[in-house]
Amino acid sequence: MTGIPFRKMNGLGNEFIVFDGRAGAVRLSHDEIRNIGKAEGIGFDQMITIEKSRIGADAFMRIHNRDGGEVDACGNATRCIGRLIMDETGAGNATIETNAGLLRAYDTGKRDTVTVDMGVPRFAWNEIPLAEEFRDTRAIELQIGPIDAPILHSPSVVNVGNPHAIFWVDDVNAYDLARIGPMLEHHPIFPERANISLAHVTARDAITVRTWERGVGLTRACGTAACATGVAAMRKNFTDRRVTVTLPGGPLLIEWRDDGHVWMTGGVEEEFTGTVDPATLRYTVDQKGAA
């Protein structure tokens, strides 16, 4: 079968199909991306294309969500691509150019775990961005439900490569996020849409999170959401500067360091490699991966 070689990877169950476009361009239409994204066996949350860096980094990482739209950052994918590059070079770190800026991945000494410097989060209303000015983005005026008894209200908002809104709740499973998420993702306050998270602070060093991911839907893990939730909790003095954020797919360690950078540590897994024909969605599996 002729087709495009790919790798299937995941970070805590956040599923990726990875194409290597460094030797030759990989160009798929929105329809082809959407069709592969929902195809049984190779479906994904994000499609990652590794390209040559324009600024001398080890690689450029292009990210498309399952709906075909391009986004600027994906923390879980950065760990996976960091692992691939470090395997190629034998180095203990990798520099990855993204539309959100330059990210650095580091070997932790464990093959299935990678640390990423996610850069400096942005809190100004026009950097997130929001459609109107809020001086304090630790809690903005946004609610869903009756005005005198809202279901959710007063989220924290932050940009960690992508726009995020975090609602603080006592039980992340007590809400129908599959129904509420799309409404909030497309709320007019978010001109570029937003990732919507429910967060329960369980200790000074622990948060439980569920996320509706922009352009994807319910996800087992979202690395930028974990970073956004961590720093938002720290800004509100809910937690200390080092927290474990537990998502449905597993835990991520989030640290907000004194220099303002957010560091994320978590798992990576290569599932298999193969070849796919975007026109027919037929694919072959060449080799099973190893964590």
Describe this structure in words.
The two termini are 27 Å apart. 15% of the residues lie in helices and 40% in strands. The protein has 291 residues and is an alpha+beta fold. The chain contains four helices and 20 strands. The longest helix has 15 residues, at 75-89. The mean pLDDT is 95.
Quick recap of the structure?
With 291 residues, the chain is α+β, with helices and mostly antiparallel strands. It has helices at 30-37, 75-89, 177-185, 223-235, and strands spanning 4-11, 14-20, 46-51, 59-65, 70-71, 93-98, 101-107, 113-117, 143-144, 152-153, 156-159, 163-168, 195-203, 206-213, 217-219, 242-247, 250-256, 262-267, 269-276, 283-288.
What does the average pLDDT come to?
A: 95
Strand content: 35-45%
Total of DSSP H or I helical runs spanning 4+ residues: 4
Low-confidence stretches: none
> What is the total tally of β strands?
20
Q: How do the helices and strands follow one another from N- to C-terminus?
A: EEHEEEHEEEEEEEHEEEHEEEEE
Oligomer: single chain
General shape = globular
Class by alpha and beta content: alpha+beta
Radius of gyration: 19 Å
CA-CA gap between termini:
27 Å
- The helicity comes to 10-25%
Task: Give me some keywords for this one.
291 residues; 18-stranded mixed β-sheet; 4 helices; 15% helix
